[in-house]
Amino acid sequence: MRAEPQSFDRVLSSMCTEPHPAAREAAERFLATNPGDPGTYQSAAALEDRAVAMLGEIVGLEIDTADAIGTGDDARARGGEPTGYVTSGGTEANVQAVRIARERAASATGRPSVVVPESAHFSFRKAADLLQVDLEVVPTTADHRVDLEAVRAAVDEDTAAVVGVAGSTEYGRVDPIPELGEIAASVDALLHVDAAWGGFALPFTDREWHFGHAAVDTMAIDPHKMGQAAVPAGGLLVRSTDLLDELAVDTPYLESTSQATLTGTRSGAGVASAVAAMEELWPDGYRDQYVRSQHNAEWLADQLEVRGYEVVEPVLPLVAASIPTPLFESLRAEGWRLSRTGDDRRVRFVCMPHVTREMLESFLADLDRLESRAARAVPSPGE
Ligand SMILES: Cc1ncc(COP(=O)(O)O)c(C=O)c1O
């Protein structure tokens, strides 16, 4: 095989990034392990407990994680039960969260529904399709956050879950999570927060987004995005272990008794790299990275605005800007990896850890050059 992976030099569209060197090394070491069979792959399974404990600390779960992180103990060794697992990514975490909510609502009379903002990731469509639940999509307001009045109007006795996004894929926005928790509670529904992308940046902001801030029941948070772990390393976290029980099936031929995960065989590489990245970076490394990425995003937003493009200001390190389609296509032809929002076809610039100021300067130089070439190609009136 001669193929090489792409370089990150011109990647501005991805929610993933180059793994931290420690995460890469750990992934390679644990390549042939399977935490889905904890009776056989015991060290990978222990690492998963550690990953969940560390993620629990990041997302404000009131469990005794400080000990676990300090001593290397894992939750089970201390008699606790895990409050999550390392998924294949945000999609699996979202599907599983909807599955938990559906199981909880099983005694309801009507077909269960899940209320999601239009800004929610398309993985909720897969979840609804697979799990036979209705998806009630509610609009966002002008600031690209969910319209709370629309959520209030959408929920009823069939609502199994309300979803809030903490770091939306297209605009990096954070929904009002405490208010969504109140609305969910008013109809006895669960609140799921999708922090798959935002979860490693939000701890360094003043946003209210996690289990400690609001009545959150389940959450997606992905080490393989802002967490700088190797793919695949997502995370599903739950407020209490009985929520995971909704997912558990018996595993007769394994030494473990039950399995709550969606996939069977899973990547020990992803688990190990998530632990390695978090041990290296939580909290100071992630804070420094967030500050760098946020500054880059704000700087890029200013630079685009100065050039006359309409810009959606970055709340998290993600800028969206209106760039004409021919210019967008020319930039892509020059090798820039860019993508656009579904509604207004704004170009998204995801300022991930691999996106440096030098890279953005080089992008802007290409933008200016292609823009002036396009301007020269347009005949002036009377020509
Ligand atoms: C907010 C959000 N949720 C879920 C996902 C899906 O994650 P994955 O692609 O890891 O399945 C994404 C992907 O970018 C995302 O941005």
From TrEMBL:
Biological process GO terms, please?
carboxylic acid metabolic process; coenzyme A biosynthetic process
The Swiss-Prot or TrEMBL record lists the needed cofactor(s) as: pyridoxal 5'-phosphate
InterPro entries recorded? GrpII_AminoAcid_Decarb, MfnA, PyrdxlP-dep_de-COase, PyrdxlP-dep_Trfase, PyrdxlP-dep_Trfase_major, PyrdxlP-dep_Trfase_small
Task: Name the keywords, alphabetized.
Answer: Decarboxylase, Lyase, Pyridoxal phosphate
Question: What catalytic activity does the UniProt entry give for this protein?
Answer: L-aspartate + H(+) = beta-alanine + CO2
Residues modified as N6-(pyridoxal phosphate)lysine are: 225
The protein depicted here goes by the name: Probable L-aspartate decarboxylase
